[in-house]
Amino acid sequence: MRIAMTGPTSLLGRNVLFELFTHYRGQLEQLELLLLGRDKPDTPLRERVKEMFAAMTPDYFSETQIAEIYGYLDQRARYIDIDLQQDKLGISEDDFQSLAAARIDFFFHIAALTDFRDLPIVVETLKRTNVEGTRRVLDLVTALRVGEFDYVSSAYTCGVSTGEIQPDYVNIHQSFRNPYEHSKLQAEIRVRLFKLRTGTRCRFFRPSTICGRLNAPPLGATNKFDVFYAIGAFFLGVKLQMYPWEERYNRALHLSFRALYSLESGLNIVPVDFVAKAMLCIAMSGDPGENYHLVNEQETPHALYVPLILDTLRVEGVTRVDQMPQQLNEIEALYYAKVGKLYTPYVTSAPILFNTDTARALLDAVNVSCPLISRENFGLLMDYARQHDFGAGYLAALGQ
Ligand SMILES: NC(=O)c1ccc[n+]([C@@H]2O[C@H](COP(=O)([O-])OP(=O)(O)OC[C@H]3O[C@@H](n4cnc5c(N)ncnc54)[C@H](OP(=O)(O)O)[C@@H]3O)[C@@H](O)[C@H]2O)c1
Question: How far is the CA of 231 from the centre of ligand 1 (A)?
Answer without folding.
Answer: 21
